[in-house]
Each structure stands twice: as C-alpha cells, then as structure tokens.
Design goal:
Layout (H helix, E strand, L loop, with lengths): L1 H15 L3 H11 L7 E3 L4 H6 L1 H11 L3 E4 L12 H11 L2 E6 L6 H10 L4 E4 L8 H19 L4 E5 L13 H7 L6 E6 H6 L4 H7 L4 E6 L1 E2 L10 E2 L8 H10 L4 E4 L9 H14 L3
Parallel strand pairs: 1-2, 1-10, 2-3, 3-4, 4-5, 5-6, 6-7, 7-10
Antiparallel strand pairs: 8-9
Helix pairs in contact: 7-8
InterPro entries: IolE/XylAMocC-like, Xyl_isomerase-like_sf, Xyl_isomerase-like_TIM-brl
Keywords: Isomerase
GO molecular function, one term: isomerase activity
Length: 286
Amino acid sequence: MSSMLGLGVAVMPLQFCTSPKKETAIAELDKSKLDKFGIQLYSIKEDMAIDPQATMRALAGFGYKQFEGFDGGKGILWGMQPAEFKTLLSETGTTMIASHANVFENLDAQAALAAEVGMKYLICPWIGPQKSLDDYRKKAEEFNQIGEKLKSFGVKFAYHNHDYTFVDLEGSLPQDILMDHTDPALVDFEMDIYWVHVANAQPAEYLAKYPGRFKLCHLKDAEPGTGDPHQRGVLLGSGEIPYAELIKQSKELGMEHFIVEQERFPSGTPMDAAKANASYLSALEF
C-alpha cells in the first residue's frame, strides 16, 4: 500500500503540474508583436504635398519603420534626388519598401530610381474593372512582362487589389484569374484587406488559398454595415476586421510587409489618424 501511495504521490504532480494560471502565462509569453510596420503615404497626401521631408520625419516619430509611396505629381521620390532621399531614410531609421506607380508608362526610369534608393517593389495600384475574364488574362500576361522587366533592375512587381477583383464575373473571381495566370517568380500581390472584406470575401480564406503569393498588405478597418464601401473606413481597432488573427495567420502564409492606409477620417486630421494607427499596431499582440 505504501508503495502504491508513493506512486500516486509521484504521478500526481505530473498530472497537475500545469495550472490554469501557468497556461495563461505561457500563452502570453507565446504572443508576438509586429517588430516593424509601414504606412502608405497617400494616407497623408496633403501633408506630403506641402513638406514631404517633415511629414516623413514625423511619421517615423510615430513608430513607422517603412514607407510605401505613390506618385503625387513630383515622381516616386517626391522631387528629391536619390542621394537626398537616402539620407532622409538613414536619418529617420526607415526604409522605402515600395511605391505605387503607373507601371504602364516610363517603367525603366521609375525602376532605375526605385533601385537606386533601395525600394523592393513597384506596385500597380489600379487597373479598373475589366469587361471580361479574357481581359483579366491579358492583364495577367502584361503583369508577367512588367515583372520580367523590373527583375532586370533588381526590383519586384506587385499588384494591389480593390473590391472589383473580388466580385463574380462570368462565374469566377477576377482575382483568381490574376493569381492563376501570373508567374510567382515575377509577380507578387499586395492584399488590401479592407477591400477584400467589404467585397464580402474572406481575407483569411483567400490568403490560405494562395499561400506565399501575398507579400504585402494594406491595413485599414471597416465599420460594421453594408453601406457605401468608400464610407466605411475607420481607425484600426475600431471596426470589425479581426486584425490580430489576420496578421498572425498571414505571417504564417508568407506575408512580409504590413502597411497602414487610411482614406476616410471620421474625426481629426490625417496625421492624427496616422499616429493613432501606429499606436494601435505598436500595442497589438497576436
């Protein structure tokens, strides 16, 4: 009997060694945070038009480590020379990860500038709704050609979606056509999670459908409802998109760059929104 009791005493600690409190503590230790995140400069386009350097310095002060640009009429370097632009990035401890650009015109010149300042991507932000799936197939082939051209400069190509590629056309999703008819070695994708969500698609399911194809994403939140999709944008964390879950899953599926984009401002200024979104992402655990 005493030997059996001794065995019971020995076994019990193994059975009950993990208490609920310890499990919670372990779970908390397993949580991660984004070590760096970026912002699409279109979010504060008015400020960029007035003083791009001061604006980028302020954004770096909010915690943004990466920038994604766009051509605001002064070119993808906002009127700065490459050396001046690189100095700004060095002084602020940031990188210019990408720029949205008109990739259908002056591609060589833009690619050369992008390469000189260390950009990883030039991104097509818009092709507009096409009339047929064949038209999307033609765009996919054009994307392959653009990707091949950019490859020679050491720059990658990506396409940024809106809602229209997630709306049924001829029994298929146009986004599927673009995914299936582009070469993964030449064409990456930037998922605008907001536009996928308001198109009533499921960002998580779509990311899982094409693992490794989405390397960048736009983060912006949507208020609940079914109204005008252009009028549902809200600050991160105040809408219905489950970003903690999505960021965790997308990282596991190959997502590398998380970029804030704010296009609607229910209150405050665009810079106020940029600061609030940076605070949200800095504190987010997943």
